[in-house]
Amino acid sequence: MTRLTDLSGADLQHMLDVLSGADSVELKLTLLETKRAGVAQALGIDPLDAQLRQVFFLDTKDLSLNQAGVVVRARRRQGEKGDTVVKIRPVDPAELPDELRADPAFGVEVDAMPGGYVCSASYKGSASNGDIKQVAAGERPARKLFSKSQRAFFADHAADGLDLDDLAILGPIPTLRVKFQSDGFKRPMVGELWLYPDGSQVVELSTKTPPSDAFQTAAEWRAFLDMQGVELSGEQQTKTKTALEFFTGAA
Predict the structure, then answer these.
(1) Phi-psi region of 216 (alpha: psi -120 to 50; beta: other; left: phi over 0)
(2) How many Å apart are CA 240 and CA 131, to the nearest integer?
(3) Contact indicator for 118, 111 with CB cutoff of 8 Å
(4) Cβ(249)–Cβ(59) below 8 Å
(5) What is the pLDDT along the chain (251 residues), one digit of tens a residue?
(6) CA 24 from chain center: how many Å?
(7) Is 58 exposed, middle or buried (0-12, 13-18, 19+ CB in 10 A)?
(8) Which 8-state DSSP code applies to residue 89?
(9) Is the pTM value of this prediction over 0.85?
(10) How does DSSP classify residue 67?
(11) Chain Cα centroid distance, residue 235
């Protein structure tokens, strides 16, 4: 993730170019453990509104996909169909083929956290919760969860000869996700709690905005969170990196 404070003039121009080529921007913030309950109360988050999910990542035992900037994920969702994604990051939107950008299942998003940003390209798909459960149990080939287009996208960016069926299933990680709205900020927000098997947790707040509104929304969100007493300078954790390192002992 590129740190904003490290940007030169040329780097800043590149960031603006990336934003102009993205489909959306997601602003993210991970919370200090000691502040989570207070933040939930201040923002009016009701935990009973949360959706239970199970997240599985697919990678090699030495995380070669992650090291190459490739993320493969399947997710079971309570009350909804499951979903899958093959993601690469970082990417330059200007270098992506037009046929990919035209596919409604393909999207480019900039993730921005305090201190940095990264642009990713994602090929999304759907899968039944039952099929994901079977793959996790080793009863079904992993490739069956992904569309033909997702498999081709994976093959284009994974190491030569590496197949989806060669990957280890890392998970599950139970998560709780709640979408909510608070007075004083116009956009919907999302809170996610990731529960790791060792008892550790990552809590993330996020909101999405069109790229054209990114700077204005970021300023408004920062001001809103500051008024609610939300600490913005704490150490930031990424959910994916934390999960992969936990299940492979790479931390």
Answers:
(1) alpha
(2) 22
(3) yes
(4) no
(5) 555 445 556 666 778 889 999 999 999 998 867 677 788 888 888 889 999 999 999 999 999 999 999 999 999 999 999 999 999 999 999 999 999 999 999 999 999 988 788 999 999 999 999 999 999 999 999 999 999 999 999 999 999 889 999 999 999 999 999 999 999 999 999 999 999 888 888 889 999 999 999 999 999 999 999 998 887 766 666 788 888 888 887 54
(6) 13
(7) buried
(8) -
(9) yes
(10) H
(11) 17
Question: Whole-angstrom Cα distance, residue 245 to residue 6?
Answer: 26
- The rounded distance, in Å, linking the Cα atoms of 217 and 25 is 10
How many whole angstroms separate alpha carbon 230 and alpha carbon 222? 9
Backbone angles phi, psi at 133, to 5 degrees: -60, -40
- Which residues, listed in sequence order, are joined to residue 86 by a DSSP beta bridge? 72, 123
Tokens of 114: 């305090």
DSSP state at residue 181: -
Residue reference for tokens 């080529």: 21
- The dihedral through the CA atoms of 30, 110, 180, 55 has a sign that is negative
Task: Show the tokens assigned to 39.
Answer: 């933040």
